[in-house]
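pasting for ref
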Amino acid sequence: MYDPPFLDHLRAWLRVALPRWGLPAGAGLSLLNVSENATFLAEAPGRRLVLRVYRPGYHDAAEMRSELAWIAALREGAVVETPRPVPALQGGLLQAIPDGATRRHVVAFEHMAGTEPPGAGLMPWFRRLGAITARLHAHGRGWVPPPGFTRKRWDFSTMLGERPHWGSWRDAIGLDAAGAAILADVAASLRGRLAAYGEAPHRYGLIHADLRLANLLAEGERLGVIDFDDCGFCWYLYDFAAAVSFIEDDPILPALAAAWVAGYRGVAPLAEADLAMLPAFVMLRRLLLTAWLASHAETPTARALGAGYTSGTVALGRAFLRGDPGIPIACR
């Protein structure tokens, strides 16, 4: 979908819409990221906005408005530093704009300065991220959502099972029969472990669900969080697994987990029974991302990782089934 001609089309279409936010049609407009959605930076003298163009068919308008409602509540409660959604001049945060026969939804955010935390020296950032995650979870547990609030459920059936939001892991790029057999066993093991762990309110609720490094903005001592597009109802500790997306087999993982747990426990308790599930959640996320790459093969991430990521998933799956510390997390 997001090939260069289509991105050129989106850029030209979005340029016409810029005056909705008080920006001239001739403002600078550059592509920031293509993932689930396409995100652009619009720049005019004295003003910078980030514009998210939603991928049609993923969220409906009620889900989009619900994301924005949680962001507003988090900002009002000073729970996390995250960019302010910016309404259009005629009012309304969510704009539905015709594009031929399609109506595309767009939302604008204030630009937040910062860069992705660097690979070297990640431990202090993961400690901060653990604390931020604990505050997000505490807010989600205590918040009363507005009427009509609706976000996706992330559970086994919608991640790896019969109703997958991101497609089937069986379609993974370069997956052969032997690898598929291993991943089938992994999926079956995860199904059983997650069922036994359960969805009690202290374990399952509203989370960000995509706190990976690309969605963090570090500047000075501040760690900002962006992109709540996948927020929904899931196991709380899945937020750690999302934080180590694409580095699941890095030898630094145990140290990152320890730093994250220390930061979390500085804000809220975390039971040993929950910590024991961290490897399962990391494996769950890894298999889910493997499915995502297959269903979003046109994205730069999928093109860069391709079959190599799938083979790495199979290797991690073997270790997971053996009970090896191949997803090597041990924190106390």
